[in-house]
Amino acid sequence: MEHGYDRTTSDHCVFMKRFLDENFIILLLYIDDMLIVGHDAKNIKSSKGELNKSFAMKDLRSKKQILSIKTTRDRKNEKLWLTQERC
User: Fold this and answer.
1) Which pTM value belongs to this model?
2) Looking at the predicted structure, is the pLDDT value of residue 25 above 80?
3) Which of 10, 36, 63, 87 has the most CB atoms in a 10 Å sphere around its CB?
4) Which long-range contacts (CB under 8 A, 24 or more apart) does 26-31 make?
5) How far is CA 8 from the centre of its chain?
């Protein structure tokens, strides 16, 4: 929270950081895993740099699955789907 994130009331492992231009970042934490999502790549990169000063981090880049959640991206149409369907 010292980096400008607010904890959501619905889930204490979900944090949001809002920027003046109305963009935002959502940060999801689970034990030692972190997922950062947002619209502006510059804000994400900057936030990763800030967090890396406080925590040892590895940047695994874009993931197709995290914590049994499958992610599918459509960059052209700016859409992201999260599913937990069993294969």
Assistant:
1) 0.69
2) yes
3) 36
4) 30/67
5) 13
Tally of helices (H runs) and strands (E runs) in the chain: 1, 7
44 contact partners, CB below 8 Å, separation of at least 6: 25, 36, 37, 38
Q: Look-up: residue for tokens 């940047």?
A: 59
Tokens describing residue 34: 């972190």
The SS3 call for residue 65 is strand
State the residue for tokens 């049994």: 68
Q: What is the DSSP code string of 30-43?
A: ETTEEEEEES-HHH
Counting beta carbons within 10 angstroms of the beta carbon of residue 50, is it exposed (0 to 12), middle (13 to 18) or buried (19 or more)? middle
Query: What is the amino acid identity at position 55?
Result: F
Q: Please choose, from the candidates 61, 63, 66, 19, the residue with its C-alpha nearest in 3D space to the C-alpha of residue 43.
A: 19
Determine the straight-line distance between the first and last CA of the chain, rounded to whole angstroms.
37
3-state SS, residue 59: coil
